[in-house]
């Protein structure tokens, strides 16, 4: 106890020296507090993104692989078409097989098929909803059995598969979606319903574009509205993109394809992976299970990571800032303590002469520094707490602006300033949209305070090393002789 | 015999030295007496006191405190409880006042006292200083006053031996006499063993026993 009392007296009688040490610790504490708050908040945001967004894996065409293979042996167009036709479509059995994996927590899928309708007139003939058909058109592949219908019939296996509704791209404007995913029901776009005077409860008949005899009746249970923001090209059309899309369940698609084996059904599976670390393992497993080499596993991992990139950059900046601050602060404090111990060599000699043990002298010197450090930490943390939120938001804003400027610059190079590089419109099954991080709440919390306390303690002990080694080396009689 | 300290065949050579500073010294010290260790500068007086006070360890011979080898006991405890050391340059802590210097010494030696402040004032009074002087910072006191504080500090834990190295070396004649009076009173009235290293004949003349350190050490014991 007397050591603490003596340490306190010593601090009060040597104010100048201790104020200097205190100012340095306040600066280090304030900077560390801001850096820790940013790191903490950034980590929370990143982990909340990990929790909020499932790691979704889909199976898409590996076009690069396909094109390089098709062009490799200078095949003719007909040969390429033949090769393309040989690529087996994914089947429901495949999806079940792939979904039965230790890396998958759940899975669902959508089936789509191009159809015509007896009752419905399409909103516009120009709209080609099937991305698969678009791709084939781009490839210059024409095939009789792949005639494009006026409508795209999309079947979902469960509510989980209905991403457009989950994300709010589509909303039910009237009626409802049937809870029975094996019923012969459908919902249609409200614009399409309006054009064709369709009422809820009406029955529509969809037919195979290549074989009018293959038909299937569906009861309309609801209308949906497409809320997707219109792009410049959409503005030219008076209808929404999805106007000719009829939404039903996978059971209906299966039933239609059973009636006509030649009908080409596109299946878009989505596998919810257990975590982001198993993506490669899952991909390898699918290859082992026989996934065609022209298919690949795509995930929304890049999308999630790209949306949290700004916050991660900010966190990295905070880490570097923290390390630099601690190194500079630590070295300055170490030097100050070395000078302090040299100045107080005589005091150490006297204390040792009158019987104070080495460890007690060390304890007193460390206690002095601890007391100064503790008071400075409180002041530094208070200032840091006030500054952390505005500073971190200012830094994030500048980081976002910097990233956006880069993207805009690239867009301008393409002549499209608002170009979105993250979404591949031609993906067969697009992964869900991820919200961009635009603000950060870097408020000081208990975790930050504990971390700050540990840093302060560590820094104090580090800078006390010189005092400890000097005191343990000093011989009292030598000090007093030097003094005399 | 009332020997509190005994030196037997003590020799000492500094680790970086070639010649012995002390060679085969044998003295005995009793309670209730003032001992003067005389010698010219560089004769080894301070070295001898450093060894006796446990500030340095010896390699040849032995120093016995109440029959126990000094090298075998906790020297920090020995310095904080069994001996009081008074230096020529006082060696007080300048950032503390006189009272705080004394209380710190009591704290180090774990003196159990309800009112250490009152005890410090009484000690200062015993060496001729009042409370007002006791509240002054050390550097605001005269050399004589500082030495009195140093003596009061050395008495704060009631040691059996007081060691003083040239205690009046920085003081005038009148103050020297006053300090000597305090030290002799401690020996004769308080039954302490007072060992003073000095080259002053005046100090030596007031002591009970004089040991003179020369190349060949002589013992000039006076009749107490």
* Main β sheet profile of chain A: 6 strands, mixed, barrel
User: What's the oligomerization state?
Assistant: heterodimer
Structural class of chain A: alpha+beta
Largest sheet entry of chain B: 6 strands, mixed
Number of helices of chain B: 8
Q: Assign the CATH architecture of chain B.
A: 3-Layer(aba) Sandwich
Q: Write down the Rg of chain A.
A: 35 Å
CATH topology tier name of chain B? Rossmann fold
Instruction: Name the shape of chain B in a single word.
Output: globular
> What proportion of the residues of chain B is helical, as a percent range?
25-40%
Low-confidence stretches of chain B: 216-224
| Total beta strand runs of chain B | 10
Mean pLDDT of chain A: 79
Between the first and last Cα atoms of chain B, what is the distance in angstroms?
15 Å
Shape call of chain A: elongated
How is the topology of this model organized?
The complex is a heterodimer of chains A (484) and B (224).
Chain A: H1 2-13, H2 15-52, E1 55-61, H3 63-72, H4 77-86, H5 92-99, E2 104-117, H6 131-139, E3 151-156, H7 163-166, E4 170-175, E5 185-189, H8 190-196, E6 203-208, E7 211-226, H9 232-235, E8 245-249, H10 250-259, E9 266-273, H11 279-288, E10 295-299, H12 301-307, H13 309-343, H14 345-353, H15 358-413, H16 446-463, H17 465-473, H18 476-483
Helix pairs in contact in A: 1-15, 2-13, 2-15, 2-16, 13-15, 13-16, 13-17, 14-18, 15-16, 15-17
Chain B: E1 3-12, E2 22-30, E3 34-38, H1 45-52, E4 60-65, E5 68-69, H2 75-82, E6 83-86, H3 98-108, H4 116-126, H5 131-134, H6 143-155, E7 161-165, H7 173-188, E8 193-198, H8 201-206, E9 209-212, E10 218-221
Helix pairs in contact in B: 3-4, 3-6, 4-6, 6-7
